Amino acid sequence: MQNVVLLTVCINVFINGESRGCDMEEKADLRKKRTKRLLRTALLELVEEKGLERVTVRDLTERAEINRGTFYLHYRDVPDFMERLSGEIFDGMKSLLTQLNPYEIKQYAEKGVPYPGAVQVLNYVAQNADYFRVILGPNGDTRFSMKVKEFMSDHLYSHVFSKASDEFKFPRDYLIAFITSANIGLYTHWILNGMSMPVEELALFITRILYKGPLAVAEILK
Known about the structure:
Elements: H1 2-50, H2 57-64, H3 68-74, H4 78-98, H5 105-111, H6 116-127, H7 129-135, H8 142-159, H9 172-192, H10 199-212, H11 214-217
Helix pairs in contact: 1-2, 1-7, 4-6, 4-8, 5-10, 6-10, 8-9
């Protein structure tokens, strides 16, 4: 009987100990996420105010109201933090862009409904509007948009233009440059103007432009 009691006590201690350990890990994870969120908000505010090159760790930690020791536990310096943040945003964007299939656009345009892929990309941009507003703004970093443009160009070439006939009339690189630059320019305009146009409406606009071209959509050419 005594052995049974001792075994029960040991099991309870083990279970409770494990539970406390999980609780501590969960709390630590929540603290880490909160710290990252505070740093992200502070960094984007400071970059918007004076540009990335002029933001110091002291500026960042004071704005985020955390100590510098906590910052250095996770990041080397301000550029390292921005690079990691941009990497996360780009990876999310890349996963959505990879799913886009230009050959599907025609069927949605003819039905007068937005291409779902365009809706997903715009929703992602809207969810990270704080980042995109700063990075695409006057004090932002042009390297991000160039990276997105490069990925879009590679995706278009490998999934569309590499399959085109050798008798294709237009220089592929110029057409790809036009499509990618136009899309990035449109996203930038939308973000910097407060995303006043609803996502579904803008997605339909993009769907029609990609299918018919801007002049036809504007009814300049009939």
